[in-house]
Amino acid sequence: MRDRFERLKERWYALKETSGFKNSMLFLVFVAVSTLFWFILALNDSAQNHFNVRVNVSNMPDSVTFISDFPDRIHVTVNDKGTNLWRNGFLKTPTINIDFKEYASDGVLHYSYSDLISALKETFGGSAQITALSLDSIQLVYTTNPGKRVPVMVNCQVYPASGTTLEGNIKSSPASVYVYGPKDVTDTIHSVHTEMLTLRDINETTTTEARIRKIKGARVLPSSVSLTVPVEPLVRKEAMVSVMAVNVPEKEEMLLFPSKVPVEYYVAMSRLNDDEDNNITLQVDYNEIGSSGSSKLFVHTVSFPDRLKNLRLQTDSVEYAIIHD
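^ thats the sequence. predicted structure below, dont judge the formating
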């Protein structure tokens, strides 16, 4: 390995002494110097560029909350020498600062077009020409009233994937938010609602973000919440459920054979060990004896909890006997 390194070293020294290598290096030096001069001349020419200028509000009391949407950045088009644009727009983040105490009064912060131009001139330099602005002024409504805490109402449509089910309620985090605004507005607000969210083919518990619906004349903080959608796989379960006879005359008694029938259904995996037998209502109707045309009566599924899916009777009819008192 050492011998190989020595051979490469000797070849490098030999290459350096050739006229071709020296000419190539001289050419590269001239190219670099030419590029540098071209870059300097180009920067001295007038140029136009677009910038996102950050907006900062200083000297704002902690008790102040803006109700209007705050424009944290303004899109600005600037004409100036390339060197100035490079120094003021690219080497640092262009920012304008608005003094809250100077421009805010009676619940409104007003920053006019001329104020914006003056601040941008200060940021980009006196020679800069501001040719376009995304805003013609900044006018922000604010309040010093404390926030009112209200619960979040979730608007979400969930379509679980095949073989799964929504098990339990969708939970919001945080479960409550603060509403800021004039007292006559906040007094009428008792809850806030999320924007409608539709989730399809969800096959496991999922967490997603949902924005809070805006309220005219007020501001909600935080403006979005995290939703946890509990989705579980379905598992098959069987049970023996009692059948009840209805509309039996007072002086008669109806005996059913069998008195319990097998039922199958699907539940969320976490409910596999729950006893659901008493929550399923099955019955036969005495008044159907004449119309049945047989010694059996049809078993009706009257009710069962929504959490039981695809409930099916494995025996759909039973025999009966009438006993007279």
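The first strand starts at residue 46 and ends at 58.
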